[in-house]
């Protein structure tokens, strides 16, 4: 299997962490979404990463779908199967991915618009949404099980991205998440290699 990805992407990081956990080998294909390469557009009309290319050429896109595919391949090593545990894991994944999406909109406003065209109220609104989600997760993270599942990998990848792009702006209000990420990095050494990086 081949994975079209970029090192800074939190969603690609989540997928790589999930593959590592499931002992699945991936051929990594560094991909610049900005240049919209033909292979990416052919594999995912949205032009987004990560994209998993199966051995028969079938493409699988969106990190949640890719991770669910890995879960099925591995006999459910990623996603808990009892209703309560499934709900906790998927709720955590959805909330932290959503927080990252909001923070990305703030980042893109600065990255892609000239200063005079930036819309500060929109940036503030998206950042507020992200911070509300983090506050909820800060209060819930202690309840995650010891055995890593998709919630752990989503949380680690997204918090790693927030640290990369917004270091110093979110940690003070979320000490439990900061502590959790430090402990996860210690207990899961592969994170150092697979976390979002510039």
UniProtKB/TrEMBL annotation:
Taxonomic lineage from the root: Bacteria, Pseudomonadati, Pseudomonadota, Alphaproteobacteria, Hyphomicrobiales
Transmembrane segments: none
Gene3D superfamilies linked: 1.20.1050.10, Glutaredoxin
GST N-terminal domain ranges (all copies): 1-78
InterPro entries named in the record: Glutathione-S-Trfase_C_sf, Glutathione_S-Trfase_N, Thioredoxin-like_sf
Stored SUPFAM superfamilies: GST C-terminal domain-like, Thioredoxin-like
Protein name: Glutathione S-transferase
Pfam families: GST_C_2, GST_N_2
Species assigned in the record: Aureimonas altamirensis DSM 21988
């Amino acid at each position: 299997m081949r994975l079209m990805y970029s090192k800074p992407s939190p969603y690609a990081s989540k997928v790589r962490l999930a593959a590592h956990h499931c002992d699945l080998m991936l051929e990594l294909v560094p991909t610049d979404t900005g240049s919209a390469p033909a292979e990416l557009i052919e594999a995912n009309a949205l032009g987004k990463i990560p994209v998993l290319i199966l051995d028969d050429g079938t493409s699988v896109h969106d990190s949640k779908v890719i991770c669910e595919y890995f879960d099925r391949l591995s006999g459910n090593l990623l996603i808990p199967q009892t209703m309560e545990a499934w709900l906790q894991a998927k709720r955590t994944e959805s909330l932290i991915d959503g927080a990252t999406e909001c923070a990305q909109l703030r980042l893109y406003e600065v990255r892609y618009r000239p200063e005079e065209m930036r819309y500060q109220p929109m940036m503030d609104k998206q950042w507020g949404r992200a911070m509300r989600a983090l506050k909820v997760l800060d209060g819930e993270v202690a309840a995650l099980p010891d055995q890593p599942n998709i919630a752990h990998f989503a949380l680690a990848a997204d918090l790693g991205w927030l640290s990369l792009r917004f270091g110093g702006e979110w940690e003070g209000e979320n000490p439990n998440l900061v502590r959790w990420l430090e402990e996860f990095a210690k207990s899961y050494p592969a994170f150092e290699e697979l976390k979002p990086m510039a």
